[in-house]
Amino acid sequence: MEPHVALAVDLLTLHGRIRRTLLTGKADEVTASQTAALGRLLRYGEATVADLARAEGVRPQSMGATVQALVDLGLAERRPDPADGRRTLVRATETGERAREEAWSTRTGVLAERLATLSDADRDTVAQAVALLAPLTEP
Q1: Which site from 65, 86, 92, 132 is most exposed, i.e. has the minimal number of CB atoms within 10 Å?
Q2: Helix, strand, coil abundance in the chain, percent, nearest 5
Q3: Is residue 53 a part of any domain in this protein?
Q4: pLDDT, mean of each 10-residue run, the chain (139 residues)
């Protein structure tokens, strides 16, 4: 296996392990896809289901189910598009924003506790790795 492929496998494995570690203390019923959609609404503002689906790389039917679940949980709401009455816009509610902030805070705390067990030098290395990896997530 080529070194860059082996590194990719290692990164994906680590990503999965970190994700599972952060989900162990999860106290809400919001799924990963719902969290992603809610996060996008909070970062970029209201959107149509089709726009959310495109942005998240899923089918509109799947995003429709995700949005409906967020609406049912009171984390998002739908409203008619004032510019085009045929379209519906989805936006996060205040409850959704609070829930996202609480979940983010909890996950940050868990990860911060784990990072605190590292030496200063190792934390510096992790910070350097994050800086190097961040551009890989850009389109």
Answers
A1: 86
A2: 70, 10, 20
A3: yes
A4: 91 89 72 90 96 94 96 96 91 95 88 95 96 88
